[in-house]
Amino acid sequence: MRDLAKGCCAALALAAQITAFAAPAHAGACWTERTVAAAQLRQLDVMLMVGSLQCRTGADDYRADYDRFLLRHRDYLGTANHLILDDISGRVGPLAAMDALDHASVRMANHYGMHSTYGCHELKLVAISLANSADEELDHAADVMVGPELEDGGCASGAAIAGAGVVPVPAKPTAVAAVAQLALPGSR
Fold first, then answer.
1. The model's pTM
2. Is residue 63 a contact partner of residue 131, using CB atoms and an 8 Å limit?
3. Which of 159, 183, 188 is nearest to 23 (CA)?
4. CA distances from residue 88 to 28, 93, 137, 149, 161 in whole angstroms, order as listed
5. What pLDDT was estimated at residue 72?
């Protein structure tokens, strides 16, 4: 009986060590006030990417527009991703940070793969507009299009920004119209 108790305690101690080692990576994926805007940019990019794949066989195939969007804003989106990685790295280290951002991106893609907030036509209009807009317009577009749907970064416990879990919401035609107007002169 004594050996069983020792074995049980050893197993519990090992489990506690494993949990303590793994927990910071999970907690480190949480967005901070410093990274919320960057996370919204990442999620906008994922939303457009997933949509471009889902819409590739229809009349609103916008893969070429999405590619133009990426070419125009690659550096700006990259800077946002580096901001997220730097912030998470400070808490969990660089390798765990890359893993955390990858997992968050997969959750974002899975969300849009299952719960498309916008239709192909709306996403095409947004991709066209953003492909012709200045980098600074992406922040506004991400705030309008992603807003309350910001993936929680792995903080389902509520440690992230309040209300930041993924919640499917009805399509917001006014949001699409607002973003689609970004590239038009005098629209803001």
1. 0.70
2. no
3. 159
4. 5, 7, 25, 21, 15
5. 97
Q: What tens digit of pLDDT does each residue of 100-126 get?
A: 888 888 888 888 888 777 899 999 999
d(CA 39, CA 160): 12
For residues 84 and 100, give the distance between their C-alpha atoms in angstroms, rounded to a whole number: 10
Token pair in block for residue 101: 């951002």
- Is the separation of the CB atoms in 164 and 152 below 8 Å? yes
Query: What is the three-class DSSP state of 156?
Result: coil
- Residues whose CB is less than 8 angstroms from the CB of residue 19 and which lie 6 or more positions away in sequence, other chains included: none
Q: How confident is the model at residue 46 (pLDDT cuts 50, 70, 90)?
A: very high
Question: By the 8 A CB rule, do 139 and 76 touch?
Answer: no
How crowded is residue 61: how many other Cβ atoms within 10 Å of its Cβ? 14
Nearest one of 159, 133, 160 to 144, comparing CA atoms: 133
Which two tokens mark 55?
A: 């819409």
First CA to last CA across the chain, in angstroms? 75
DSSP string for residues in 52-110 = HHHTTTSTT--HHHHHHHHHHHHHHHHHHHHHHHHHHHHHH-HHHHHHHHHHHHHHHHH
**Whole-angstrom Cα distance, residue 138 to residue 76?**
9
- Mean pLDDT over 51-64 rounds to 94
